[in-house]
């Protein structure tokens, strides 16, 4: 099960620097000119989770396997991208393929790094990209309306539902609002996602600040956080410069460096966790002597489907799951203690897996 976050932003805001730090590679060329990233670079990164280390310690596991999330570094978007400016068509197509958008916003002054718009204004930068995505969505939806109207008039139920969603989305887009604000029922969600709208994707704003503001942000990032709160998005503060330094540092030197700059952990940990949460994902664990492993599922997933993430046979032949809440597993020092303490539960097909559950599946071959 792959989940992708696309890193977007104007040129020279620190996207590729952030990507390099995320993947701890130089796969994406970070350079001070527009369009240095022509093909999207892809990096698969572990989701930091202290719970997994604790479970492995208790379970005396030989190996630790974290859950992972994919980040795609997409080249800088400029004004006019929706009409093909700056290789816009290619970049918009790359955004369409991701599940969520990580929007890197420049929140620092630096005369040595050119800003494509000539001034540092994070909200204006956000508006530029959001406008291009909305214009692309408008064009996409307007092309579909005529044929859908014909099908809807003939009585096609799916066409009627899709047309209603398109009309609601068009009203928002014409008002300058993203399609993700479109009101829809749970039953309509699948049809809405099939529209593949760029502005329907959840957004995480990453405020790239100067080194001195890496812990608490600055006036620029405060404005981005306020906007995120208004639209139900998320935001984090990082210094891409600091993160790129940490990424190439030996592990045993990182803690001292972080303490010196006043950070409790790398900012990238927050980016990864927020990206994970943005997609509505949670983690469950399996623990044994061979390995302690984290597994990714969507919030609300029932036990059989969760088992299917490990192997499709587990879902097909699902009988029950032996379930221990994380706090009980740790507090009672493992499976045996949880069993003796009455905290190991047998859950059936309707059980909705909770974040942190330690599970062992029983299934028929």
Overview features:
single chain, 365 residues, alpha/beta, six-stranded mixed sheet, three-stranded mixed sheet, 14 helices, 12 strands, 41% helix
Determine the number of helices (DSSP H or I, runs of at least 4 residues).
14
> Helicity range of the residues?
40-55%
Query: For the residues shown, what is the average pLDDT?
Result: 86
Strand content: 15-25%
First-to-last CA distance: 23 Å
Query: What is the overall silhouette?
Result: flat
Structural class: alpha/beta
* Whole-angstrom Rg: 23 Å
Main β-sheet, spatial strand arrangement: 2-4-1-5-6-7
SS elements, strand count: 12
State the oligomer: single chain
N-to-C SSE series? EHEHEEHEHHHEHEHHHEEHHEHHEE
Query: The biggest beta sheet, please?
Result: 6 strands, mixed
Enumerate the spans where pLDDT stays under 50 for 5 or more consecutive residues.
25-38, 84-88
Write the layout of secondary structure elements.
Blueprint: E1 4-8, H1 15-23, E2 41-46, H2 50-59, E3 63-65, E4 68-73, H3 88-96, E5 100-106, H4 122-153, H5 157-174, H6 189-193, E6 203-208, H7 219-231, E7 234-238, H8 240-247, H9 251-260, H10 267-278, E8 281-287, E9 291-298, H11 303-310, H12 312-316, E10 318-324, H13 326-331, H14 335-340, E11 345-347, E12 358-363
Parallel strand pairs: 1-4, 1-5, 3-9, 5-6, 6-7
Antiparallel strand pairs: 2-4, 8-9, 10-11, 10-12
């Amino acid at each position: 099960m792959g989940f992708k976050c696309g890193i977007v932003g104007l040129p020279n805001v620190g996207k590729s620097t952030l990507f390099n730090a995320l993947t701890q590679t130089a796969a994406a060329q970070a350079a001070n000119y527009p369009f240095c990233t022509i093909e999207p670079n892809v990096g698969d990164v572990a989701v930091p989770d202290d719970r997994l280390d604790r479970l492995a310690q208790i379970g005396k596991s030989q190996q630790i396997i974290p859950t992972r999330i994919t980040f795609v570094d997409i080249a800088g978007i400029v004004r006019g991208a929706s009409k093909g400016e700056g290789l816009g068509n290619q970049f918009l197509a790359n955004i369409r393929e991701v599940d969520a958008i990580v929007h890197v916003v420049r929140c620092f002054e630096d005369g040595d790094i050119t800003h494509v718009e000539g001034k540092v204004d994070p909200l204006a930068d956000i508006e530029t990209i959001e406008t291009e995505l909305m214009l692309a969505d408008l064009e996409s939806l307007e092309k579909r309306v005529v044929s859908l109207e014909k099908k809807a008039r003939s009585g096609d139920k799916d066409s009627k539902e899709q047309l209603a969603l398109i009309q609601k989305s068009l009203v928002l887009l014409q008002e300058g609002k993203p399609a993700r604000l479109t009101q829809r029922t749970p039953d309509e969600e699948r049809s809405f996602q099939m529209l593949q709208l760029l502005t329907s994707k959840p957004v995480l704003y990453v405020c790239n600040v100067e080194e001195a503001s890496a812990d608490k942000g600055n006036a620029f990032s405060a404005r981005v956080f306020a906007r995120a709160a208004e639209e139900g998005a998320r935001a984090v503060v990082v210094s891409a410069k600091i993160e790129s330094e940490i990424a190439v540092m030996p592990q045993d030197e990182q803690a001292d460096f972080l303490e010196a700059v006043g950070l409790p952990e790398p900012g990238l940990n927050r980016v990864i966790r927020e990206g994970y949460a943005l997609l509505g994902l949670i983690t469950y664990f399996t623990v044994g002597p061979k390995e302690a492993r984290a597994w990714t599922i969507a919030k609300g997933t029932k036990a059989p489907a969760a088992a299917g993430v490990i192997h499709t046979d587990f879902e097909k032949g699902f009988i029950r799951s032996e379930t221990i809440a994380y706090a009980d597993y740790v507090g009672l020092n493992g499976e045996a203690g949880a069993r003796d303490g009455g905290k190991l539960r047998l859950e059936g097909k309707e059980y909705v897996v909770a974040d942190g559950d330690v599970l062992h599946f029983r299934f028929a071959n």
